[in-house]
Specification:
By secondary structure, this protein is an alpha+beta fold. The protein contains 24 helices and ten strands. The protein has helices spanning about 5-10, 25-35, 70-80, 130-140, 155-160, 180-185, 190, 200-210, 220-225, 230-240, 240-255, 265, 305-315, 320-325, 335-340, 340-350, 360-370, 405-410, 470-475, 485-490, 495-500, 505-540, 550-555, 565-579, and strands spanning about 50-55, 60-65, 85-90, 95-100, 105-110, 115-120, 120-130, 145, 150-155, 165-170. A four-stranded mixed beta sheet has the order 3-6-7-10. A two-stranded antiparallel ribbon has the order 1-2. It has a two-stranded antiparallel ribbon with strand order 4-5. A hairpin with a 2-residue loop joins strand 6 and strand 7. Mean pLDDT is about 80; it is low at about 245-265, about 265-275 and about 470-480.
Length: about 575
């Protein structure tokens, strides 16, 4: 809803003409805060739940769901329900007060799953499976319970909502019509189509058939010999053109068969006419992502170790985990299969051989081809030149790289990789930038091994710092703000030796660094105070007391309450609200 539509809805007239009672100013502020706020938390998959995001056409943004068994079906219902004007996932948390089993008063900060605005009301919705609700009822019947008809209730939630004139409902998976849910998914492409054009002749024929044959089922419509096809029928259902015809028939004939307009959606999508029951041919699936190597067929083709590191990163795994769980099973070496931890260290020490023309390179690329179903990974090694090059002093023992290439790829948004060309011992200059290749980390001044258990492309595995120029210049501290320890590391001289010859200069550098640290701390405290002020206002508008515990949940650095300046600022902000 636009701002004007929302004000009309609050005043008693929804944008679609449904009346409701006027809302108090307190309730309006609460709803406006919910509408203008981002989701208060990010969902997480737990147990057997599958979390995700649904691209809502009604809301014009993605909606989170934490459970594919309850919350996702509820989103489908809210999306298609014309009575629902807006709905928001993970609204700001509310406080529920109730008694425990031992009659002890409990206060729980609770984040409902949805806040829904309907034509004639608004309120929170909490979604749980029937099994979860029964366990929670046994744990504390004052939190969740059932009424005489078997509907689930949350008395503390209803009590909190009642003070604003709103509702609080509990949704169970038992309430869903799963045939309807399957049909929502079946019609998803039709719902999302920007325009569902139906030929006028096909539309007239379809409407005439539905009008003449009251109570006709979907399977009968699909078999009917008319000018419309299945796409025309499904498009008409998605556009709700058929429902309009059914509504007119109900008003005119009072036919009991058509008393429920969405009858076809609820009952009939299980029948699709004639189907091919032959078992389809399913293509072979890869165990790992079908990741495309960089630069195949060019002089800058990436190395096999570079592809391995990118593959591990694509699966959000470390290299040693990917080796242990997947790749090592395809190796013939006994020390890899039976002593994986120790064996991996032995293999990583021979990292250059994985890009060469020997047995290790052959086994690694064959293993990765089986896991990714690619057919071009041999191009990432020197196996094609097995009878051309001697392996003696062919590849360097540790990595070399061009920081300018890393910088350029980063700026252009290209894939960061390690070209196989850089592994040759005779290649010492970048052929693109005509600059010497670096062979030591500029931060820790150590050589970079070809492969370790935590290797990442473009980063030093020992200090986790960027090896290119772009990010290092962007994020490193300025030359004037270095600690004496880092100055000594850059000069490659012991810190005590520098101090013995230049004591006054060392003291000046240390004093300047301490001043820099104090300035940074003051800036972080000031930023935290601004977040505290925003959190206090947000809680006050929601009708909650801005205690230190609640405010700490809404700021990015709750540990900053250890500073007395932040605590004083919180007390001052609360006093300003009271005044």
């Amino acid at each position: 809803m636009l701002s004007n539509d929302f004000q009309k809805w609050c005043d008693g007239q929804s944008p679609r003409g449904a009346h409701r009672i006027n809302l108090s100013q307190k309730t309006r502020q609460l709803i406006e805060n919910i509408r203008s706020s981002e989701p208060s938390r990010s969902v997480n998959g737990r147990g057997n739940n599958v979390c995700g995001r649904y691209p809502s056409q009604k809301m014009g943004k993605t909606i989170q769901f934490e459970s594919h068994r309850v919350e996702a079906p509820k989103i489908y219902e809210l999306e298609q329900d014309e009575n629902v004007l807006e709905y928001y996932d993970q609204p700001p948390p509310i406080k529920l007060n109730y008694q425990g089993k031992n009659d002890k008063k409990l206060g729980v900060i609770h984040t409902p799953d949805f806040f829904v605005l309907e034509r004639d009301g608004a309120g929170w919705i909490e979604c749980k499976t029937e099994e979860q609700l029964k366990k929670l009822e046994q744990k504390n019947p004052n939190r969740f319970c059932q009424d005489g008809q078997g509907n689930w209730l949350c008395p503390p939630g209803e009590e909190y909502a009642a003070q604003f004139g709103l509702s609080y409902a509990v949704c169970s998976d038992r309430e869903f019509n799963w045939t309807l849910q399957r049909n929502f998914l079946f019609l998803e492409d039709y719902y999302r189509a920007k325009s569902l054009e139906i030929k006028e002749s096909a539309k007239n024929s379809l409407m005439a058939t539905v009008t003449e044959q009251a109570g006709i089922t979907l399977s009968e419509l699909l078999k009917a010999e008319s000018d419309f096809n299945a796409d025309d029928l499904y498009s008409a259902i998605a556009n709700k053109d058929i429902y309009k015809v059914l509504d007119e028939l109900v008003r005119e004939s009072r036919n009991e068969i058509l008393s429920e307009c969405p009858k076809m959606l609820n009952d009939d999508f299980d029948i699709y006419g004639s189907c091919d029951l032959n078992k389809p041919s399913i293509p072979l699936r890869s165990s790992l992502y079908h990741l495309e190597p960089v630069g195949v067929g060019t002089s800058y083709v990436e190395s096999l170790t570079s592809f391995l590191m990118r593959l591990a990163q694509a699966h959000s795994l470390e290299v040693n985990t990917l080796f242990t769980k997947k790749i090592s099973n395809y190796f013939d070496q006994v020390y890899l299969r039976e002593h994986r931890n120790k064996g991996l260290s032995t293999l990583f020490n021979k990292g250059a051989a994985l890009n060469s023309n020997g047995i290790l390179a052959s086994q690694l690329y064959q293993s990765l081809e089986q896991l990714t179903l690619r057919k071009d990974l041999s191009c990432l090694t020197l196996l094609a030149f097995n009878n051309v090059f001697s392996s003696r002093k062919l590849l360097r023992k540790s990595k070399a790289w061009c920081p300018h290439c890393y910088e350029q790829w980063q700026k252009d948004g290209k894939t960061i990789h390690e070209p196989l060309l850089w592994s040759f011992e005779t290649v010492t200059v970048c052929p693109q930038h005509f600059q010497p290749l670096a062979n030591k980390c500029p931060h820790c001044d150590l050589s970079v091994p070809w492969l370790t258990g935590k290797s990442q492309v473009g980063f030093c595995p020992k200090c986790d710092r960027w090896l290119g120029n772009f990010l290092s210049n962007q994020y490193s501290t300025s030359e004037s703000d270095l600690a004496m320890k880092e100055v000594a590391q850059r000069l490659k001289i012991d810190q005590r030796t520098i101090y013995s010859y230049f004591p006054n200069l060392c003291k000046a550098i240390s004093a300047k660094y301490r001043s820099y640290q104090k300035q940074q701390t003051a800036e972080r405290i000031q930023k935290c105070c601004q977040e505290v002020e925003q959190a206090v206002r947000s809680l006050h508008q929601a009708g909650e007391y801005p205690s230190e515990a609640r405010v700490s949940q809404l700021i990015s650095q709750p540990g900053y309450f250890r500073y007395k300046e932040v605590r004083k600022y919180l007390n001052r902000a609360i006093l300003d609200l009271v005044i």
